[in-house]
Specification:
This protein is an alpha/beta fold. The chain is 38% helix and 16% strand. It contains 10 helices and 11 strands.
Length: 295
């Protein structure tokens, strides 16, 4: 990026979530502003607050979080840093996990828990209504339809504006849409991890936003390719990975997370990074096995 250019998430273009929430396509994920293992407060609270505020200064108007991040810590920090919220800012949060201790995550997508989770998020975020509320993951011990009906009821009550999903299959999305409109899906996805390719295509066909998590992937062979391209473009590997996502589909809204202003600025610079067609195709051809992405 030319030094004279102004860093802004707006350079990535916009997408309308639910048809009425205009979002700059490069957002911010607020999981990493918590303590180690996504547990407890951050080591440097003031740095976390400063990073959140800087994200807004750089044009970010979509922040993704969850009640399980901390737990509660991420939502509380977002409110402390940004309330009263600037016009147009969308804070998307999630429910359906419980955190009994450090490193422990347990499912609970029961209607009772989801209702309590929404109330907790509303209080911590200091909101009367959550713009985008995501089921964090389907719970095998609870009827998926029961979970979705609970969120549909909360939407009818005005506590949720839009319902969304995370970590789901196409079947989940289709079943959910029979109960309530779904405005976004958040699955693991990157240039090197295409397991959700068919989900991205489905979302594009139905004008549903797709929020990829783990956007850089973990494959060694992919890292070799992306490093070569990054060197050619005078960019970082992460910037190239994010630029590929932005080019992959107009419904993709990357939400890279960091607790560092330096890394935040690096991420936002990817909004202005244009991948030549030949470069995009070279990255598109990288398809390592999913098993190689897990370490």
């Amino acid at each position: 990026m030319n030094k004279e250019e102004v860093l802004s998430a707006a350079a990535a273009g916009t997408f309308k979530i639910g048809g009425n929430l205009t979002i700059n396509r490069l957002g911010y994920g607020a999981m990493r502003i918590t303590g180690p293992g996504v547990w407890g407060p951050p080591a440097d609270k003031q740095a976390a607050l400063a990073t959140l505020r800087k994200a807004i200064d750089l044009g970010v108007n979509l922040i993704d979080t969850a009640d399980s991040y901390g737990p509660a810590v991420s939502e509380e920090l977002i409110a402390e840093a940004l309330f009263p919220y600037p016009a147009g800012l969308v804070v998307a949060t999630k429910g359906g996990w419980e955190r009994p201790g450090p490193g422990l995550w347990t499912h609970n997508a029961s209607p009772k828990h989801l209702a309590e989770a929404v109330e907790g998020s509303l209080k911590r975020l200091r909101l009367e209504r959550i713009d985008v509320y995501q089921l964090h993951m389907p719970d095998n011990n609870v009827s998926f339809e029961a979970s979705m009906e609970a969120l549909a009821t909360l939407r009818e009550q005005g506590k949720i504006r839009h319902v969304a999903l995370s970590n789901v299959t196409r079947e989940h999305i289709e079943r959910a849409r029979k109960i309530v409109p779904i405005v976004s899906v958040q699955n693991r996805y990157s240039f090197a991890d295409r397991e959700s390719d068919y989900i991205v295509d489905y979302c594009e066909e139905n004008e549903i936003a797709f929020l990829p998590w783990a956007p850089i992937g973990q494959a060694r062979e992919a890292h070799d390719v992306i490093k070569q391209i990054a060197d050619q473009l005078h960019a970082t590997a992460f910037q190239v990975a994010l630029a590929w996502l932005l080019k992959r589909s107009s419904v993709i809204l990357p939400i890279p997370g960091t607790a560092s202003i330096k890394h935040l600025e690096e991420n936002i610079a990817s909004a202005s990074l244009e991948l030549p067609p030949s470069t995009y195709k070279k990255l598109d051809a990288v398809r390592p096995s999913y098993a190689s992405l897990r370490d």
